[in-house]
Amino acid sequence: MSDSSIEFPKESTVLLIPGPAGQIECLTAPPEADAVDKNRVALICHPHPLYGGTMRNKVTHMLEKAFRDMGAHTVRFNFRGVGESDGVFDDGVGEADDLLAVYEWAKQAMPHCKFWLAGFSFGSYVALRAVHAINPEQFVTVAPPVERYDYTELSPPDCPWLVIQGDEDDVVSPRAVYEYVEQQNPKPQLVTMKAGHFFHRRLLDLKGAVKNGILRQVNTE
């Protein structure tokens, strides 16, 4: 059941919503004006908080831009203990609860929309922990840290899944990501790029890879 008092902002807005550890700081944005289908909400998870990751990270921002181009309302948010979000770092467990709280808020604000889910680095691990509860229409993970966390306990999503990995990444092992993708059933769509972990000088190419990857999956459904 939706709460009619909750509305998705019509302009880019920073707001605080209730979460399991206190307030969660969110940054919402509407779809681009010329987008055709605006019946989606994309939730975007940022990289590791203990290494400076926030919702304003450049990669998460570029994910937002790609999704807005494709007609999605977007929500970036700070995990617990980051920015104005309450709580302390919880190694992905509590952060997944934060994500689910953001999802519940967005679902009430936009009850008739489908959801997309994305994460960068640590954020992709958090997103995968919550993917079955959210059951998104599309799932995007950029530089998933498969060697740093126990991915064996996490089952793949039931929706189309796009994995983007830079082959010059010195934070996440490209080889480990490629091997992980090969082991999945169904297998994600893998896009490799000549880029490091933060996609310096390749952010616009990353944006294009996200849009093309999702369009490719939509056209093959």
UniProtKB/TrEMBL annotation:
Gene3D superfamilies: alpha/beta hydrolase (3.40.50.1820). SUPFAM superfamilies: alpha/beta-Hydrolases. Pfam families: Peptidase_S15. Residues 40-145 form the Xaa-Pro dipeptidyl-peptidase-like domain. One of its GO terms (molecular function) is hydrolase activity. PANTHER family: AB HYDROLASE-1 DOMAIN-CONTAINING PROTEIN, ALPHA/BETA-HYDROLASES SUPERFAMILY PROTEIN. This is Xaa-Pro dipeptidyl-peptidase-like domain-containing protein. It comes from Marinicella litoralis.
